[in-house]
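CHAIN AND CONFORMATION:

***
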Amino acid sequence: MDTSFNEDTLDRPREACGVFGIYATDTDVARVTFFALYALQHRGQESAGIATGNGIAAAVHKDMGLVAQVFTEDNLARLEGHLAIGQTRYSTTGSSHLRNAQPYLIETMHGPLGVGHNGNLTNSPELRRQLLERGVGLTSSSDSEVITQMLAAPPPGSDNGDPDWEVRIAQFMEAAEGAYSLVVLTRNAVFGVRDPHGFRPLCIGELPDGGYVLASESCALGTVGAAYVREVAPGEIVRLDASGCHSRAGSTSSRPALCVFEYVYFARPDSVLEGQTIHRVRQRLGEILAAEAPVEADVVVGVPDSATPAAIGYATASGIPYTEGLTKNRYIGRTFIEPSDRLRRSGVHLKYNPLEANLSGKRVVLIDDSIVRGTTAGPLVNLLREGGAAEVHVRVSSPPVRHPCFMGIDMADSEELIGFVKSTEEIRVHIGADSLAYLSERGMMRAVTEETRTQGGHCNACFTGEYPIELNGYWRDRDKLAFQSAWAQSGDFE
């Protein structure tokens, strides 16, 4: 039985993974990658890993836990070389188990091959079956291992003796469906790859002393002293090697679809997507929410930290003062100490405390970025009332989440999404708020696109049910669990 308590018990979808890649001579690439993963920790807190190469051989260290728990001075010192990739992970396809930790690193006839993956392949069962039929053994339930083996063993009819990794990556892109941002380590280069729809973000940075990096978010660039260059385009293959940074088209799509939840919740506020800071977009979400769902109140309070910019935007647009009403314990992390029955009733009490001086006798507008399963909003409302709030009006800076995500975000099945099974009024009663209102889908998209400097589309399927890709019967029939069940029956699967 899993007796762990962590942030996953709260009402938040699990973030997409974070990936990083670097090619730089005369640089401690393992240490740089460590600090980059530290900056990307918000995207994955189950496992972390780094693989390095020196032009001859490669090495990897990975384990379950936070980045600072996985790496030490000793194991970082053993990761030598001038190129590296790293990943910090949440499980989507594949369980939370060491065998699924990344990067994957294998030996091929052309030297080492390492892969770090952020996303989800929607046709992974078909690709897995093809590999197994060809005699390729698989050791995990992760679609990231499928990607690794597809690159290592090109399709029948291809020249297996051709070491042109760009060609192999392009062949993979033609066969793969779904979401993927990849960092790929070979003997002499690091590649960055983004799926044709651009579901998951990836950007390029340049180091001051030479060399380039790839990162899921631009916030990691500043941490390692790299200057932001640009985003990797959907369908693009980027190669980092001794001669610099190079680009070629891998595959294209007529429908770009960056995940809109990156703006709503996932990305760090200081990151830049499509030429705009996440913090500013979240402020606009709050400003538009204030216009769509006004209320008479005394103070505006945000759920720290992701909803704080939206709360500031709501306060600015409404004229209602913003104040801190909840303090957050930022040191919970993962623990395997089981809480008592009383504490287990709500992890909220372990993570948040009300500021009574700012709440007593006040009509409070509580701003949250999303309500997914409905397990956190109610306890938060109760906390505010315990802190003395006379009224609690909940405003959500995104529409109701009604549909699962198949592109790399651990969204629950529809039946587990409170926005799917309950009306807004039923949710209000469920959470005990005096009133409840969501931002409209139109208002959300207006906030996201108002200042974009790139022309592209967005995936908002978790709100609308309109998926940008065709979903086959595998997803509908939930055959995703078939391979995982085989591991479970062996007694070695969590």
Observations:
- The chain has two domains: 13-257, 278-449.
- The domain at 278-449 is CATH 3.40.50.2020 (Rossmann fold).
- Residues 1-9, 334-339, 474-494 have pLDDT under 50 and may be disordered.
- The chain has 20 helices and 23 strands.
